[in-house]
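Hello forum,

I keep getting stuck at the same step: I have a sequence, I want structure tokens, and every attempt I make locally crashes halfway through. Rather than fight my setup again tonight, could one of you with a working pipeline run this one for me? It's a single chain of 291 residues.
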Amino acid sequence: MSAPWRGLAAIGCSLLIATAHAAPYQPIPASPEALSAALATRRSALLGEVHDNGGQHALRLAALKLHIAAGARPAIAFEQFDRERQPDIDRLRIEQPGDAGAIVALGAPGWNWKYYLPFVQLALDYGLPIIAVNLSRNDAMRVGNEGWNAVFEPSDRVALGLDRLPPKLIAGHERAVARGHCDLLPPGAVAALAQAQIARDIVMARAIAPYMENGVVLLAGNGHIRKDIGVPIWLTPRPRATTTSIGLIERDGAPPIEVLEEQFDAAVLTDTAERPDPCAPLRQRLSPAGP
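Reply #2:
Ran it on my machine without issues. Output:
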């Protein structure tokens, strides 16, 4: 077991310890300058997103450029790269230096890579570490179908308290999964997907832990960076105290301020992306077949 993973395991089931040192909640104007200033308040940042919102990606990129121009040199961690790709990313940086396209080609399918390529290029331009942090779709499905043993050793399962997780944590994930799937999934599917999301959060925390002494910016969906149920609770107190969780939330349908305060250290309300009804394909797929 690596030293960073021992640190994660030591947290056991006392998940709320890591949130005790979180920064007071701050609303952030939707400007690169304001977001850059928020990034500078802590050594590391968990920077959320709505995956298909191009305006949010542009805002984050502009803010990160300002942050780096001011002297910050964080590692950039990507939900969009599965953890197995790390050796290939490191190899390509040697064999094809500066080639962001070659690295992006290693990314998981299903992402709109035009949004993430500029972040990869920024990391290459400044020689910043690129971290592949995500649990693969196949491994996540295995966790949902087979349980924790699919990914975690029995000793890790015990140390992390995975068989005795707080009901509030499980309920929070299940609510998020249900809402994210338009409240159309059966309860069994919701529980399995929630378990997979918890596994992803643990794996992400494990991946960024070795880099946090020098600073990390994690680019991930808002659900993963929530301080009440996401990656932050799997960080031990010292790195958590030097990390800010910043949600980028679409203004239409945004939760009230007290909910945002519970979920994030800071949040930016942005315009809502234009998109077709996201529930229509799932509703069609789950509807009973006609006669």
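The CA atoms of residues 55 and 130 lie 23 Å apart. If your local run keeps crashing, start a new thread with the error log.
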